């Protein structure tokens, strides 16, 4: 908890616009992917899989819904929050929401690891769209770590 407080109170150096735009684009890709899956879920249809087989198995498994909420919708909310944080930084250059958005990627990575594990070892099937979301979530996390390592003013991180 101490490190989190330090992380949030330490200022960030300005990020290059290209890096902020990169974060925005990756989050937008994740948002589009998970929103598409959410729409398909509520329509009651399974999107076609072309490279891997198993979308139907994964997307209809008991793990595709948590407390009545589609996992894809939770992913859409996650990516939307990251989008808002990065977009607000690009527009205002204020780092507070950017820091929260970048910290949120830790949660995204934890979920990614869990759901990828479920696909590989429990469901024993893979969903192309879910793997795409896992990739975007992992890229956001790695980029967040790089941002904190390179642009946080404190030497403690």
Q: Strand count, sense and closure of the main sheet?
A: 2 strands, antiparallel
**What spatial form do the alpha-carbon principal axes imply?**
elongated
Task: Tell me what portion of residues adopts beta-strand conformation.
Answer: under 5%
User: Got a strand count?
Assistant: 2
Task: List the domain count as a whole number.
Answer: 1
Let me know the average pLDDT: 93
> What is the count of DSSP helices, taking H or I runs of 4+ residues?
6
What would CATH call the architecture?
Answer: Up-down Bundle
Strand order of the largest sheet: 1-2
Q: What is the CATH T-level topology? A: de novo design (two linked rop proteins)
Describe the structure.
The chain has 157 residues and is mostly helical. The chain has a single domain (17-151), classed as de novo design (two linked rop proteins) (Up-down Bundle), CATH 1.20.1440. Helix content is 73%, strand content 3%. It contains six helices and two strands; from the N terminus they run αααββααα. It has helices at 2-9, 17-43, 55-59, 71-92, 96-123, 128-151, and strands spanning 65-66, 69-70. It has a two-stranded antiparallel ribbon. A hairpin with a 2-residue loop joins β1 (65-66) and β2 (69-70). α2 (17-43) packs antiparallel against α4 (71-92) and α2 (17-43) packs antiparallel against α6. The radius of gyration is 17 Å and the shape is elongated.
Question: How are the elements arranged and paired?
Answer:
Layout: H1 2-9, H2 17-43, H3 55-59, E1 65-66, E2 69-70, H4 71-92, H5 96-123, H6 128-151
Antiparallel strand pairs: 1-2
Helix pairs in contact: 2-4, 2-6, 4-5, 5-6
